[in-house]
Write the C-alpha cells for this entry.
Amino acid sequence: MGERVIPLVDHRTVGLAVPAASAPAPTSGLTDARGRPLRDLRISVTDRCNFRCSYCMPKEVFNSEYTWLPHSALLSFEEITRLATRFVGLGVHKLRLTGGEPLLRKGLETLIAQLAALRTPDGQPLDITLTTNGSLLARKAQALQAAGLNRVTVSLDGLDDATFRAMNDVDFPVADVLAGIEAARAAGLGPIKVNMVVKRGTNDDQILPMARHFRGTGVVLRFIEYMDVGATNGWRMDEVLPS
C-alpha cells in the first residue's frame, strides 16, 4: 500500500469565487465564517469507549455487533503530529485530545510528547488538554503529565455510586473516577475541569452533592445540558432540565 495522503485543502474549491459581502477580513490564520480566529483544535484519537453512557453511546446501539473503526483507519501518531504542526502554523495554540475514551489508545503518552515538542510561530509551547471518563486516569496521570499534558477534563455524572453505575451502564464504580481526579491533581494536571451531564429524573439529584464535593477544591465543575445527538441516545425533551 502506498503512503496515505491527507489533504489540508480541497483543491476542487480553491478557484471558486467568494461573494464579497460574506468574505471575512484578510488574515494569515484560520478563521470562522465571521472572521474570528480559530485557536483550538480537537483531535479524536479513537472512536472506542469502555463506558456505555445512555446519553452518548448506549448499549442498544454500541453493542457487541457494532463495527468500530479498524486500527488501520486511525491516524497514526506521526500523522496527527504532522497535521497539528500545520494547524499550529495557522494560529492554533490549544490541542484537546478526545475519543471515544482517549486513554484507550495504546501509547498515548508518545503522542503527547510529540505534540508537546511543537511551538507556536512566536516560540510558545502549546496548551495540551485531554477529555476522559477518568476510568484509567489514576494509573496514567503521572505518565501523562511527564509526557507534557497540561490539563484534564473528566466526565462525572454523579457521586452516588448506584446512580453513576447506572449512567455509565458498565457497573463502573464512582470511587475509581474520584481516585483518577485526585491522581491528576497530585500530578499537577490542572486546573481540572469536571463535566456533569444532567438528565432530569436520572441524576438531577446529584447537582448539589457535586457542587458541595468540589467546592473549594480548585476543580471547575460544569453542568452540561442533556442534548439531542441524533438517533442514537433516545433523547427526550422531558429529560432536559428547564432553563
In short: The longest strand covers residues 127-132. The chain is about 25% helix and 15% strand.
